[in-house]
Specification:
Largest sheet: 3 strands, antiparallel
Strand order of the largest sheet: 1-3-2
CATH class of the largest domain: Mainly Alpha
CATH topology of the largest domain: Arc Repressor Mutant, subunit A
Shape: elongated
Structural class: mainly alpha
CATH architecture of the largest domain: Orthogonal Bundle
Strand content: 5-15%
Helix content: 55-70%
Order of helices and strands: HEHHEEHHH
Distance between the termini: 24 Å
Number of strands: 3
Radius of gyration: 18 Å
């Protein structure tokens, strides 16, 4: 699945929507959550970003009276998979083992993460 790129600001919005457990997310809820995360955006900025996410196929907007609610059309797992695939192609020519080797040799994994990874590989 080919997903369009989204900006860091758009990703912040999607993280709030994804964290809302698949429930439709109201504009006011988004405003409050983003402010709580230190992102008190102007109403117009948020509307612009939400419209972009709708146009890119990440969100569906539905008007309920005077309020808009937003539902994700792309799951967090789908987005993570697509981004990881792009990252692998760009940096490792598609080689997942190259990425894992870098994580290990670059000392980027905690002992717990290393054990978790090993257990995952053994289960497959």
């Amino acid at each position: 699945m080919m997903l369009q790129q989204i900006s860091d600001a758009e990703l912040e919005i999607m993280k709030v929507v994804w964290a809302n457990s698949g429930e439709p997310t109201l504009f006011a809820y988004l405003t409050d959550e983003l402010a709580a995360k230190g992102r008190p955006w102007q109403k117009n900025t948020l509307i612009t970003l939400l419209n972009r996410l709708v146009n890119k196929g990440f969100l569906k907007a539905k008007k309920i009276g005077r309020r808009n609610e937003y539902t994700p059309l792309v799951s967090e797992a789908e987005y993570q998979t697509a981004q990881t695939r792009n990252f692998l192609e760009k940096l490792y020519e598609g080689s997942a083992s190259g990425l894992v080797a870098t994580l290990i040799s670059g000392d980027l994994l905690t002992d717990e993460e290393y054990d978790e990874l090993r257990q995952m590989l053994e289960r497959e």
